[in-house]
Known about the structure:
- The complex is a heterodimer.
- Chain A is α/β, with parallel strands linked by helices.
- Chain A is 26% helix and 29% strand.
- Chain A starts with a strand and ends with a helix.
Amino acid sequence: xxxxxxxxxxxxxxxxxxxxxxxxxAAGKIFADASPTAIVTGAGSELDxxxxxxxxxxxxxxxxxxxxxxxxxxxxxxxLLLNVLPPDAVVLIPHDxxxxxxxxxxxxxxxxxxxxxxxxxxxLDGDTLKVVRQEYSGQVSTHSSCDxxxxxxxxxRPGVFQVxxxxxxxxxxxxxxxxxxxxxxxxRFLEVVEAEVGDVDITKEDVxxxxxxxxxxxxxxxxxTELAEAMGAVVSCSRPIVDAKWLEKSRQVGTSGQTVKPKxxxxxxxxxxxxxxxxxxxxxxxxxxxxxxxxxxxxxxxxGVVADLLxxxxxxxxxxxxxx
Amino acid sequence: xxxLVCVKRVPDTAENEIEVAGDGSDIERDDLVYSVxxxxxxxxxxxxxxxxxxxxxxxxxxxxxxxxEEVVRREMAMGANNGxxxxxxxxxxxxxxxxxxxxxxxxxxxxxxLILTGAxxxxxxxxxxxxxxxxxxxxxxxxxxxxxxxDDKKLKVGREIEGGNQEMNxxxxxxxxxxxxxxxEPRYVGIRGIRKVASxxxxxxxxxxxxxTADAVGAAGAxxxxxxxxxxxxxxxAEILEGSMEEVADKLIELLKAKGGFK
Lengths: 324, 263
């Protein structure tokens, strides 16, 4: 029998991250009778606001208030968790840039199984947990099984476990700050450097013409620029375009770029990884143009065109120019 | 600085549509184009640039079958000094922890100041670097998008965090870093570069060379097992516009007009 379920709560400026309530939903998908414990770490009075907020979804909250935890340094939090968790704990962590930092190493130190970026749970049979993951940027899914008898660290994809109703768990907060222990680490947080502001603010645009890897060459960006001009829209992009330095970082849509909320979003040659879609909010009307009919973007788009954007977009632009 | 970079040979998703094979036991492997995992290529470039600045050497290691040798050789053509291939039938079916254990055994046979991996590979797990660091008991930082050498004891590294922000850290050496794409511009590898390393001997280490028993690695030691591949039932999915390119464009313009797609 697997151990108690814990969820690591991410928070900022006294507010819990959306993943906090999602992890409680995920816990319920693993164990029907889950009574998960929220782990809230940080420093100062804003922790209390976070604890009361998550009390709606968690029956127990463990609070760790310590100056070494003021910034969530995964190395320090791993040490803390090793000091306080039972070895067979089932630990849920959001699969974001913090979870990627914490989860794998924590599983080794706890000698637990590790499941990364889980998007669904099929069920628990004895100690064997069956989950759904995705591979190849979401082009295919897999079922994986995992023996959780000795505990597990499970990174959960943000945004997939939807919270249906506000909970009424009425959680009790236990201040465990005295149990923090030694948090000396070999990696020290210095500062957060905020993203540079670019020449356009794509977060405020109603219509975005967004380009991805399918644009193939830097010179082809012009194809998107011309379409955007004809539509009165602005060009944005996915990560590979910024990696190639064809457009500035401020135009990147995604969890590692900007979060946008346009009315209409044209995804040209964008496969639709969850990191990209994570930056797309407000339920826009999505048009996908991609030559791969199996591209994940077609699962979330409202309307799709299976074509090479390099051929299709100039035709579209010309027709719009004619009608203008 | 002695740097080890862990690289993986993967199907190139820019060149292939990945499809599930008939019985779901694997993806369709016929006619797949393979290449070095994109993240790993950035890691090798970064290692070469560090060594160009402060001296030392770059070693590339890959866990895989004999065919993984081609990616090790390619990264040597880029400028890595040494290559190692970890190959053994017993390694088949390793989970992330198993792969990290193989790499740890290889690390223990050398002496490295810095170990780099890609932030993730084809399975999207992003797990091996963090596991390896924990096994070696050295500090770790994931999704690294800048590295500055402070002295021979520590680095200043930037991590790409949410919202396009960058988290700066000081990290003690030795350490493990997982490298994000975009950290540099990987150099082009020409046919001449490949020829230069074509006959370089790349040692192949199996379980016995690494001091590992067969039950500790591969499927026997794996707590996580992939059961099958499948394509999920789509929700509603996109309405796919059919017709000639002109017809599709006309239909799309009508839809966009209705949705406020024009100013």
